[in-house]
Amino acid sequence: MIPSTRIASLHGREILDSRGNPTLAVTVILESGIEATAAVPSGASTGANEAVELRDGDSARFGGKGVLQAIGRVEGPLAAALQGYDVCDQATLDRAMIALDGTPDKARLGANAILGVSMAAARAASAVQGVPLYEQLGGGSAAQILPVPAFNVMNGGKHAESGIDFQEFMIVPAGAPRVPEALRYGAETYAALREILHQEKLRTSVGDEGGFAPGFDAQAIHASLSLIVKAIEKAGYQPGEDIAIALDPAASSFRSGDCYDVRPSSGGPFDRAGLLAFYEKLIGEFPIVSIEDGFADDDWQGFVDQMAAQGGRIQVMGDDITVTNAKFIRQAIDRKAMNAVLIKLNQIGTVTETVDAAKLCHQAGWCTMVSHRSGETNDDFIADFAVAIGAGQIKSGAPCRGERLAKYNRLLEIERALGGRAVFINPFTRK
């Protein structure tokens, strides 16, 4: 007898994310008794148009960040509406939740509540069909491409008190032949960077995503990049060939009016043209292959200008400006504003909408990178998801901290399961 694939009940519980803030885990129970659970991440650096998390606002609990209301939505209206729905029909299930919410940003039921159900349902479908999650979500040839990891080894911006305006400095082992070697390249370079920071008498405390937060007094951006190059070489690798660098300035976080308020010690503050020129200087000096959110989330012209000037040499990636939303991705395509998009499940709030956003990017010939959030859990869903959609790239923080390593270690499991079918491609190879 084939086990039932229909939902019997939904349950939610309040758990803590990697910052010690509450988030929720959702369990889907099928009529067959099969259960599956998913945990929802949360971001600190968020785009203005992201789907809305539902928080309690009760200052007596977790400073108002509790998610008891979101749990109530899971166990109340969502459970009632979805009873009997088939978890193997992800699109119908997700569309039903979107319709039940009835708002453009999922503010009524909460994107965190909706996403928890959506992810748990996908995992339940995987369990009931007896196939890995990446195969359940992707199938076909897409579910054979292993993503190249981007390790966040230096944290700044909203992710750390480091004296660095840019939020993320990442190393990308794009020259590695397979996932195990890519993780080794990253871990060895991270260890080398720690040694160098010790030698320079800089802090080795880490930020939200496991990257170092050294506490620079001056020239923080240039100093960070210089130390990373030094660490790559110390670990025995060739900068730009074995390991490249990716940046996430998260420019919305340092925009003030018409000015990008980068520290004067780095040459700022900048207007739009000045910031673009600053990026040009960095690209010329360091092996940078990708810049994410180089301009603010409402500065379309900044992205257009950067794409025109630098898009032939680097990956110009949107995150806060596109928020994994097909509406904004279409605008970006029409405006020729970028050539890559960051993909985050909780920016849009359902598995189906996230898949659709990635498909739109790929149809345009753009690259995609699946991403964690700064407030993470040990849930490794995004590793399977990156393989399922053939993203080709993933970022989950530094090779440090359990909630980050869970995703990378899952990729090792997936590659082993795929065996000779696994494909690992350098997305930055330019013909």
Structure description:
This protein folds into 2 domains: about 5-130, Enolase-like, domain 1 (2-Layer Sandwich); about 140-425, Alpha-Beta Barrel (TIM Barrel), CATH 3.20.20.120. The protein is an alpha/beta fold and about 425 residues long. It is globular. It has helices spanning about 70-80, 90-100, 110-130, 135, 180-200, 220-235, 270-285, 300-310, 325-335, 345-350, 350-365, 380-390, 400-420, and strands at about 5-15, 20-30, 35-40, 145, 150-155, 170, 245-250, 255, 260, 290, 315-320, 340-345, 365-370, 395, 425. It contains 13 helices and 15 strands. An 8-stranded mixed barrel has the order 5-6-7-10-11-12-13-14, surrounded by 6 helices. Strands 1-2-3 form a 3-stranded antiparallel beta sheet. Strands 4-15 form a two-stranded parallel sheet.
In short:
This protein is an alpha/beta fold and 431 residues long. It has 13 helices and 15 strands. The protein has an 8-stranded mixed β-barrel, surrounded by 6 helices.
